[in-house]
Design a protein that fits this description.
By secondary structure, this protein is an alpha+beta fold. It has one domain. Helices cover 31% and strands 22% of the residues. The protein contains 5 helices and 7 strands, in the order H-H-E-H-H-E-E-E-E-E-E-H. Strand 5 and strand 6 form a beta hairpin. The protein is globular and about 35 Å long.
Amino acid sequence: MKDLPLPNLLVEMLNSGRWKAPDDKELIKKIGIEDADDLSFLSLAGMESNTNQLRQLALNGYSDLMGLCSGNVELLPEGYLDVTKAIVIAATYGDEALCLDYSNSIEPKIVVTNNTGSSTRWLLVAENFEKFVEILGL
């Protein structure tokens, strides 16, 4: 995680205490989180811990089930997340997550888990962090 820079706005929000889930649960559901009451916007330590857990899932053979790749992938399959180029920024206890996805750019996109019943895939929420903040009215 240390090699991926957090967006400046996220750092500002963390420092000012503004980085927290919105009260309007319908907005959270709108971005694809089903368990809106359980969503936690993570601290820096939480981001690091959850990101490490996601990377461990890929190393432990859960890549296809969870829609994960772990580096050295020429063409990332649609709906997959390269865990070496991602940071978990919010999560639920039920394994839903929002991530910064740096796979195509130095400016990350925001992606969310999408449970298809038999597996998990990742869907685009916003093209950049500023747009994500705008969508949730943060």
